[in-house]
Amino acid sequence: MPVSTGAVPIATTTLSAIEQSKRLAAYTAVDKHILPEHKVIGIGSGSTVPYVVERIVAQGHELNKDRVFIPTGFQSKELIVMSNLHLGDVDQFPTIDVTIDGADEVDLDLNCIKGGGACQLREKVLAEAANTFIVVADYRKNAEYLGTNFTPGVPIEVVPFAYAQVLRKLHNVLGSTNATLRMAKAKAGPVVTDNSNFVIDAPFPRETMMDPSTILAKIKMLTGVVEVGLFCDIAQAAYFGNEDGSVTVKRKAGSKVVEESIPPV
Q1: Distance from the Cα of residue 105 to its chain's centroid
Q2: pTM of the predicted model as reported, rounded to 2 decimal places
Q3: Is 78 a catalytic residue?
Q4: Which terminus, N or C, of the chain has the lesser number of Cβ atoms within 10 Å?
Q5: pLDDT tens column, 78-129
Q6: Which residues in 209-234 are b (16+ Cβ under 10 Å) and which e?
Q7: CA distance 203 to 181
Q8: Catalytic residue (one of 105, 123, 157, 227)
Q9: 142 phi and psi, to 5 degrees?
Q10: Where are the alpha helices (DSSP H) in the chain?
């Protein structure tokens, strides 16, 4: 079944402008990167990912019958199962053809903040396991530097036993004076990840976030940290749906990141 390679027109009667832009980005990314030869596909987490799965399903049974889909968490697992796609595990398929995921923010160099949904550990495993890692989001996530629009801070997954010590080091050593333990909104107590860990949200000054690889390495060195929601030098491209129906694409071209626009259809 042939797949389109351009931006995709979407219905405007049932979706808000933001949801339209999310779906536009997801559809365009799937059309360009989920090709017939791809058999092992990673499915990420977040509000844009349902549109990714929707578009994959639209490619048809003949293409999908021999594919395996690897989820990053409970949400994407449910999407895969409810869409009658074949569910797999990264233990069975340690090399993934393409992983498509959302992001909380993406900078000029395709570095990302991820983990607003507390899935950053599994998301990073699938991103690094993939031959191609693609990010999809709406225009609000497209930024010059990380922390511009996504202000809660860097999501850090920590073992519960060590969270107080990690917080102390973030406050007193690494300069995140407002780092806090993420609390749940529909239960008493902290957010608990799919891996039974806690999440700390650590905002840093602009000058720190302009060099995300350095602060990533420093956070990772703290005892008790499981994973950090900074994805540096992993994504090959990012697709942002815009309010006017266009799609902004940031992609790697050698050692540079180039930006281009796909006009509305």
Answers
A1: 9
A2: 0.91
A3: no
A4: N
A5: 999 999 999 999 999 999 999 999 999 999 999 999 999 999 999 999 999 9
A6: bbebeebbebbeebebbbbbbbbbeb
A7: 12
A8: 123
A9: -90, 110
A10: 17-33, 49-58, 61-64, 74-82, 120-129, 163-172, 206-209, 212-220
